[in-house]
Specification:
Oligomer: single chain
Distance between the termini: 106 Å
Largest sheet: none
Order of helices and strands: HHHHHHHHH
Strand content: under 5%
Amino acid sequence: MHDLVSKDKFDRLPERYRQRARDIAFRVGEIDRLLQRCKPAAIRDAAIRLRGQLRPQPGIEITDFAEEFRQACADLPEWAISEATNDYLGGKVENHTGQFMPTCAEFAKHARSVVAPFLGERAGLRREAEKLFERAEDERRRAEIAVERARPGHREWVRNLARSVTAGAPQITGQPHGAHDPEMQARIDALKVKREPPPSKLDETSIVRGARR
């Protein structure tokens, strides 16, 4: 239990979240037992079954294959090895011709695809367990806010708070970008650069000169 949710956090959880933590721990325990490593005898039996129905890979010594097969499947559960063997012998593996034995890597990859859904489920449950305390805290805060909002006079209290925050703030009136002091405004105007409009070149055009003639 406490490898998923630390004891100090578990003790502070509401009962509903504690029960969910227990359910998660139970299911994770089931998956862990399901994914326990097999015994070497199960790997040997799978190799014998494959060798009895399929032709060995060309140029591969059976003793070398047996050792590599054992290493490739050492961390897999017995039921996954058995299911992968059944899939190869039953012609259920895509791109396998059904004639030659699979390589060690091919067999291990297919067997891992069998257990992948359980690995994904366990990872998801562990993530959920890590978030249980955060979810409980969020729920507690939302409940406190709901109670506070239901309190008589809450809206009036919020309005008074808003007035107190904005009290004394300068009011923007008139021209927001101008100076309120006339003397300061005059100094600003004096510093402004007066730009003369550029001379018109209309008189230099041939049409105007022709009309004047």
